[in-house]
Write a structure and sequence with these properties.
single chain; mainly alpha
Length: 153
Amino acid sequence: MDRKIFLLACVIGGLGVVFGAFAAHSLKPLLSSSSFESFNTGIRYQMYHSFLLFFVGVSTHLKPSHKPILFKLILTGVLLFSGSIYLLATNDLTSFNFKVIGFITPFGGLFLIASWLLLFRLGGKYASDGDFRNPMNGQVNWDKIVASNSGTA
């Protein structure tokens, strides 16, 4: 699952860069300033959540069983939130009226908020023991304790 999360983070982040370049070089002259800002908001949130996915993928403070839940919340949130913003911002450039799907943007935002709240809940649960416990088995890592007290950590 960690590999899948890492790859999705790469794809979401890479697409964020592509969309940013496309917006700056091709869409800017075609969109109103408010539509351009909206498009950039979608990019910004997409990029924030690609970094969140990187963190989830490499974190040793999360149980492996929690990572798929966060993965699904973040993926769904980015697709609904950023995806709908992209479509709504470029609405004037197409013959289809994307305003009919505008109601899904807040649902995407709720998925993203839920992922942060779940991470907060899980982080508070497991990070309270500090970095001195192995999150996989809960055992104290005495080497880290000794290293931190000797200043070599």
